[in-house]
Amino acid sequence: MPAAAAGRETGKALPRGLLYGLYDRGIKGECVVTDEDGVLEIKNIATKPAYQRQGYGRAMIECLVRTHAGRYSILQAGTGDSPLTVPFYEKCGFCIFSPHKIFSGALREADC
User: Fold this and answer.
1) pLDDT tens-digit map of 15-45
2) Residues in the chain with pLDDT < 70?
3) Strand 39-47 to strand 74-78: parallel, antiparallel, or no bridges (unpaired)?
4) From CA 109, how far away is CA 85, in angstroms rounded?
5) On the CB side of 103, how many CA atoms lie within 13 Å of its CA?
6) Distance between CA 24 and CA 18 in Å, rounded?
7) Residue (of 38, 80, 27) closest to 89 by Cα position
8) Which pTM value belongs to this model?
């Protein structure tokens, strides 16, 4: 998703969402999540370009899982079918939930 579009989506989610920052000797990335009828949804996840492919995105997802494991059983990501984002989510254990938009992984083991 282009940065401008991602920013608009993040802005829509912030009034009712939670914003997380990943700090490791400076901010490395951010993530916004919302409650979508009892399902925790990642609305935006981003790592600064200089720190991509170093495990920070995966670390943010693992933090979400640990933080919300007692409250949510499903963690899903609303994303398009980008050749960059889909493989990232799949490497983090997500599976395709619907054909075009939503990819889902579980806070517990998923039945993908």
Assistant:
1) 778 999 999 999 999 999 999 899 898 988 9
2) 1-14, 80-81, 97-112
3) parallel
4) 21
5) 19
6) 20
7) 80
8) 0.75
